[in-house]
């Protein structure tokens, strides 16, 4: 294996900049041009679309009854079952989406007077989705109506068996549609509705929420129920990494403000155990995004019943006990991830495998816990920049694993390409799961290599850093940080904004904690603190770099300041130097812009003079304001430009 560079080997994608449009929209919205450039990158380039995105409650939502063809029938079946005291059973799933969906519908149905119970298949012995065993047990227990959540859309055989036994079946799911649909009485799935519908991107918990709220409305019982349902929707949507656009953004934004003052015993217990109840100035996002992993950990390593009980109980003692179990299992999950990641890196580095040559990495070892190897796969993708398939032995003869991808590689298609060699496989573009006989390992590795060579070019094989806009360190203040808050909640399809700054000096740097680097950055006369998580192996970083980062706030001794979370660095791509002119300090930068050399001269007031090679007219002004044209052949600009060029040539 070749030695690793002292900086991460990354590729950068910088969104095409539209400075004139960004400045125009900034004036119309009274926001920073940096913020409006981010919104343009996200596809919001009109005043109306920006206002609707920043304030999603302005959006007019169609009735779910208009968009979901089977919703009216589902409501009728459930209303009849509740009124007739028919036993209802929910079949959930062991991931956070499935567990929160199950708890949400249990709460709603019990509140509305239903006789309802639930079952979740065993992750280790049965795998995902409703199965014949569950159907048969429901039938023996006298269940008359089965309601699936976050599963069922591909369960043809179990649902056919349920119908044979005379059971009514409503499927609520959000996964991709098979060529033919199961023979359920009703199916609710956002993949069955128009792509333009705001409900299209919902997770399983979103479908459960729509069904529960519409059902409560039918009984005139929404007032006391809706807040708790919205909180569960929020937790499930965040934990499932559903896109935070459309109704997801609207409802999650609302739900995040409810979580800190939740009346649900389980959520308050989770907040307490996570150490968040006493923190000042805690943003709602922090609660949502800190609780999600604790719920997810149970589904990966323990019994989903712990989370169901946590989220449906009204007993403070039970809630605290279940929350403590979540915390304990989450710590176990963190330790396992660290241990397996370290082991996987060592196993790969000491093997004859070459991920760059193969354009894909398939790594398998005994003893790894299946519940967390998907997380480890994601970390290896970040490290090596290739699609990662990671597996562990279920027994001597069978391997089971998870896959995570890069944007240019489709995991679902890759698994389909290997289908004849697999026992079981499924997933989507970015992730998947699989199992195969152990003696097929070399064949599958070769098949994945063939698929990867068809899909990927060598330039794809570096971790991708996607950047929204260039910023000066002088622009990075608490006022900008406050404006960026309007983009939250950030997540899938609405990522945290990323900026970059060229030619930054690293004045101080030190290792902290478990392999992080903390440093002080300087550009011109501006200094700012920064941190790079899990970058200890790159210490010390070179003294001058282009940096890519997210803007964060840091509170210390009751003082709040901005801090950069560095996610990317590269060797400086432009010439930059400092010089004096008329006893005043300036910074000048020479860079390539669309094939033309461009000179930028910046003073200590934040004003920048921009001149393109061969042009007499340049622009002058601050980056967050409209620029004015100036003639650089005239004083005082001519001598200033001459001094800058001389400084660059020294």
Protein described:
It is a single chain. With 650 residues, this protein is of the alpha/beta class. Among the domains are: 64-223, inorganic pyrophosphatase (n-terminal core); 351-450, Diaminopimelate Epimerase, Chain A, domain 1 (Roll), CATH 3.10.310.30; 464-572, OB fold (Dihydrolipoamide Acetyltransferase, E2P) (Beta Barrel); 576-649, no CATH class. Helices cover 38% and strands 24% of the residues. The strands form five sheets. The protein has a six-stranded antiparallel sheet with strand order 19-20-21-22-23-24, covered by helices on one side. Strands 3-2-4-5-6 form a five-stranded parallel sheet, with helices on both faces. Strands 7-8-9-11-10 form a five-stranded mixed sheet, sandwiched between helices. A hairpin with a 2-residue loop joins strand 8 (388-395) and strand 9 (398-404).
Q: What topology does this entry show?
A:
Layout: E1 11-14, H1 19-29, H2 33-41, H3 47-54, H4 64-67, H5 71-83, E2 87-91, H6 96-111, E3 115-119, H7 132-140, E4 145-149, H8 156-164, E5 168-172, E6 186-188, H9 204-218, H10 226-239, H11 246-258, H12 265-273, H13 284-301, H14 305-312, H15 316-349, H16 355-358, E7 361-364, H17 373-384, E8 388-395, E9 398-404, H18 411-417, E10 424-427, E11 431-437, H19 441-455, E12 464-467, E13 469-470, H20 478-484, E14 499-512, E15 516-523, E16 526-532, E17 544-556, E18 559-570, E19 575-581, E20 584-593, E21 596-602, E22 607-612, E23 617-622, E24 628-631, H21 637-649
Parallel strand pairs: 1-12, 2-3, 2-4, 4-5, 5-6, 7-8, 13-14, 16-18
Antiparallel strand pairs: 8-9, 9-11, 10-11, 14-15, 14-17, 15-16, 17-18, 19-20, 20-21, 21-22, 22-23, 23-24
Helix pairs in contact: 1-2, 5-9, 6-9, 6-10, 6-14, 7-8, 9-10, 10-11, 10-13, 12-15, 13-15, 14-15, 15-17
């Amino acid at each position: 294996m070749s030695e690793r560079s002292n900086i991460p080997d990354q590729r950068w994608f910088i969104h095409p900049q539209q400075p004139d449009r960004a400045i125009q929209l900034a004036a119309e919205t009274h926001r920073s041009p940096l913020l409006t450039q981010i919104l343009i990158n996200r596809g919001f380039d009109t005043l109306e679309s920006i206002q609707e995105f920043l304030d999603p409650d302005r959006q007019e939502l169609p009735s779910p009854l208009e968009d979901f063809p089977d919703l009216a029938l589902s409501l009728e079946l459930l209303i009849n079952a509740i009124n007739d005291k028919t036993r209802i059973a929910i079949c959930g799933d062991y991931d956070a989406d499935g567990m929160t969906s199950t708890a949400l519908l249990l709460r709603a149905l019990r509140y509305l007077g239903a006789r309802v119970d639930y079952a979740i298949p065993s992750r280790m012995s049965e795998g995902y989705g409703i199965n014949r065993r569950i159907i048969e047990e429901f039938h023996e227990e006298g269940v008359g109506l089965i309601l699936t959540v976050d599963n069922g859309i591909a369960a043809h055989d179990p649902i056919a068996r349920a119908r044979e036994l005379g059971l009514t079946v409503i499927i609520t799911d959000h996964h991709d549609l098979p060529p033919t649909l199961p023979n359920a009485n009703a199916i609710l799935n956002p993949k069955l509705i128009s792509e333009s519908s705001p409900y299209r991107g919902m997770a399983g918990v979103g479908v459960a929420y729509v069904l529960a709220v519409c059902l409560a409305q039918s009984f005139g019982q929404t007032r006391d129920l809706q807040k708790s349902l919205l909180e569960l929707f929020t937790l499930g949507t965040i934990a499932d990494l559903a896109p935070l656009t459309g109704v997801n953004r609207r409802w999650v934004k609302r739900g995040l403000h409810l979580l800190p003052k939740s009346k649900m015993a389980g959520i308050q217990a989770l907040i307490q155990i996570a150490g968040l109840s006493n923190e000042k100035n805690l943003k709602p996002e922090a609660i949502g995004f800190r609780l999600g992993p604790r719920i997810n950990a149970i589904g990966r390593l323990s019994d989903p019943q712990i989370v169901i009980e946590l989220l449906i109980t009204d007993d403070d003692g039970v809630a605290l006990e279940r929350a403590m179990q979540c915390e304990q299992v989450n710590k176990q999950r963190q330790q396992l991830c660290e241990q397996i990641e370290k082991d996987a890196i060592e196993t790969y580095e000491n093997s004859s495998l070459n991920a760059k040559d193969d354009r894909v990495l398939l790594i398998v070892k005994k003893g790894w816990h299946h519940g967390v190897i998907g997380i480890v796969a994601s970390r290896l993708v970040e490290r090596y920049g290739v699609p990662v398939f990671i597996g562990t032995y279920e027994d001597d003869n069978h391997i089971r694993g998870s896959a995570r991808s890069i944007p240019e590689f489709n995991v679902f298609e890759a698994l389909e390409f290997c289908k004849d060699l697999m026992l079981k496989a499924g997933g989507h573009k970015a992730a998947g799961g699989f199992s195969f006989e152990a003696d097929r390992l070399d064949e599958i590795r070769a098949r994945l290599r063939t698929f990867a060579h068809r899909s990927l070019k060598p330039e794809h094989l570096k971790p991708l850093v996607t950047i929204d806009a260039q910023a000066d360190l002088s622009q990075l203040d608490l006022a900008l940080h406050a404006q960026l808050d309007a983009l939250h909640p950030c997540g899938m399809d609405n990522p945290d904004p990323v900026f970059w700054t060229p030619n930054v000096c690293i004045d101080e740097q030190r290792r902290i904690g478990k392999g992080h680097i903390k440093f002080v950055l300087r550009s011109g006369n501006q200094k700012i603190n920064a941190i790079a998580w899990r970058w200890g192996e790159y210490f010390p970083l070179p003294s001058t770099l282009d940096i890519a980062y997210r803007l964060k706030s840091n509170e210390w001794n009751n003082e709040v300041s901005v801090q950069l979370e560095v996610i990317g660095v590269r060797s400086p791509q432009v010439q930059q130097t400092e010089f004096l002119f008329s006893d005043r300090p300036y910074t000048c930068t020479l860079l390539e812009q669309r094939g033309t050399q461009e000179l930028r001269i910046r003073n200590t007031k934040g004003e920048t003079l921009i001149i393109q090679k061969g042009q007499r007219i340049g622009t002058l002004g601050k980056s967050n304001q409209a620029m004015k044209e100036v003639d650089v052949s005239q004083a005082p600009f001519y001598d200033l430009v001459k001094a800058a060029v001389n400084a660059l040539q020294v």
